[in-house]
Model the fold of this input.
Amino acid sequence: MWSIVRYCIPALICSFLAGGCGNKLGEKLGALNLPTLSGAPVSLVEEMGSVATVYLFLSPDCPMCISSSGDIRELAQAYHSHGIAFLTVYPGTFYSKSEIDSFHTHYNIGLPAILDTGLVLTKMVSATVTPEVVVISPESEILYSGAINERAASLGKKRQLVGMHYLKEVLDAVLAKKAIPFKRINPVGCFIES
Done:
C-alpha cells in the first residue's frame, strides 16, 4: 500500500503544477528564444497559438518550398483567425539572412520568420527536410509532423492535382476536437543541412 502512495503522490503533484512534470518539449520550448530575420530574439512560447502552432520548416532554394508557398499562405490565412499560429523556421547556416529575406518576400510568405541557425528547434521536433510542418498543441504536444499535402510525388516530381491535404485535415480535426487522422506523413523535400 505504501509503495502505491509513494509513487502516486508525486504523479498527482506533477499533474497539478503548470505544464506538468512529464512534458520535456514544453520545458524546452519555454526556454527557447530564437532570432527573427531582423535579428530580434523571440520567445516561441509567446508566439504560440491558443489552439495550435504550426512550424513550417523552409529553405530558400528548395523547389518543393517554392511550389508550396501558395499552399502555406492560403492555410495561414484560413486558420489564423481560429487561434492557430503559423511560424516559418529557416534551419541551419547554409543560407544568409538576405537569401532568406529575398525568398520570404519574393514568394509573399507573409508569416513570422525564425532563424534556427543552431538547429535547436529543428532537432527538438525531429524535422529532417524542407518543406516540413510540425503542429504543436498549447500543451506542447506534437500533434502532427510531416508533409503539408501530397503535392510532391517524389523528389523532383510534383502532382498537378493535390488530392490529400494532410495539414488541412489535421487542423480541421484540431478545431473540431476530433482525433487527429494521422500523426506523421513522411515529407518529400530537401534535406536540412546539419
